[in-house]
Amino acid sequence: MTLESILASALQNTLKSLYQINIDADPKLIQPTRKEFSGDRTIVVFPYVKLARKAPDMVANEIGSQLQQTLDIISAFNVVKGYLNISIKESFWTQYLSQHFNEEHYGLVPLRDEAPVLIEYSSPNTNKPLHLGHVRNNLLGHSVSKITMACGHPVVQVNLVNDRGIHICKSMVAWLRYGNGETPESSGLKGDHLVGNYYVAFDKHYKEEQQQLIAQGLTPEDAEQQASIMLEAREMLRQWEAGNPTVRALWQQMNSWVYNGFDQTYDRLGIHFDKVYHESETYLLGKALVEEGLAKGVFYKHEDGSVRVNLEADGLDEKVLLRKDGTSVYITQDIGTAQLRYEEFHPQKMIYVVGNEQNYHFDVLKLILGKKLERPFGDTILHLSYGMVELPNGKMKSREGTVVDADDLMDAMYDEAKASTEALGKFQFTPEEADKLYEMVGLGALKYFILKVDPTKNMLFNPEESIDFNGNTAPFIQYTHARICSLLRKADDQQLPWRKDLPTDTAMNENERELVKALYQYPDTVLAAGDNYSPALIANYIYDLSKQFNRFYQETPIMKETDESKRLLRLQIARLTAITIHNGMDLLGIEVPERM
């Protein structure tokens, strides 16, 4: 039972005893006391003042006095303008530390036997490699999945690959026109990079052709529509949907190159999926559901032949579901894929990790599935909307080749980590150990820098800032973990018995007490991160904890302490701190080294 639950239960009984008030006391309303006031937990008494018919300070003092008589864990209380601040006895904190200091799974809730939470993320197009924007998507989706599982919910991680559509056909057309049979093997390029080059080539030649047509007297709008390379791409899409074997064979070949490239990037990022869906396999189911809606009269056929839905009554507008030539759009396959996932997993929730530029898309999807097609899973859809990632020199554009490829970024982070780690010069590594450490530090810096930002906010990624060993960065946290591991190795080497029970009367100084109280907050932080789908809560908690431990380490002797009970206390605090850092960083998909 948590401290908040203990206090809430006692508060409920106290209200009934003192004022005959029968009310449920919510543990979430009992908060840590603000640092400028004395106490550990604060109860706001204003909700009970009117029922008690007394002044706020009087109510707070009466409740505090009764709670102190009832609960042995309360050492003192004070009242500040209707806020009841409660101080907890030191024995509570020492007992808590003793119970958890060697708990490997500290902060994790056992998985419940319940319907899974389905989380879709990544969702790349097979016309380009993964870039920095995809990195934020993947890291956010992966971390939210791990946090959701840490909160006790089974999770199914899925990827929907956008492997068909006009953007795919653009790369195919460009390869046919300019590729001369080039392959990943002949070029020495990863397959996703090779195909991405032809997507950029398409845009280059498309713009050149538009300029030529404009010079011949066409308007810019007509030039966009009549450029032969674009007409060829549109015809290829129609041929693909018609099942043309030649087009399908080229499509399969080029997509296979991309999949091989994606897999290498996912492996390096530590990303995996329980199931991968392909738009090419779900769009027909989506088209069938559109036809169902058309037959029911909830969709309608426009005069140009397209199928649409009018959502003006719901505060949105008109949405095309099938183009006039019968080809599907993004939402078509999303409708079909949602139906398929419901049939396969019956999830309690379907979470889509997609950038905030698609907010409208998911508002439409939920309305169509829930209100128009009356599917039972329509209300289970949640769009986890996140902000864009920008670089110091501006936004990225795939078709113009101005993106930062995920692979290039990871290579650059490895190099940054190597230079920064070698500059410290504190430990000699074998080449194999060094390579593993540079990768761990480099990728940790990348992941942490992105995940420490509230997902809803746009962010600026600065590689040099992310690798700083002294800032709010993964390397700082990783170094703290390595420092603790070194400390515990020394204790073991000296055969100090630090794993035994801690005497309950062990006194704490302020640094020790505040650090144990901070460690106590970790399980609640995990639950809050799960409720808010925010890895940033974990990241910033772990940073604050690491700062606090380093201050404790600098100001409090550990190995040189001659009092055995004090040394025991401090080593157990260090151990639980190391476990918490390890587990918290793991929820961010980040490894922490034992040596550094």
List the keywords.
single chain; 596 residues; alpha/beta; Gyrase A, domain 2; Rossmann fold; Isoleucyl-tRNA Synthetase, Domain 1; 3 domains; 14 strands; globular
Polypeptide structure, described:
The chain is α/β, with parallel strands linked by helices. The protein folds into three domains: 3-88, Arginyl tRNA synthetase N-terminal domain (Gyrase A, domain 2, 2-Layer Sandwich); 121-400, Rossmann fold; 407-587, Isoleucyl-tRNA Synthetase, Domain 1, CATH 1.10.730. The chain contains 22 helices and 14 strands. The strands form four sheets. A five-stranded parallel β-sheet has the order 7-6-5-11-12, with helices on both faces. Strand 8 (300-301) and strand 9 form a beta hairpin. Helix 8 crosses helix 9 (220-226), helix 12 crosses helix 13 (330-345) and helix 19 packs antiparallel against helix 21 (535-555). The longest helix is centred in the middle third of the chain and has 25 residues, at 191-215.
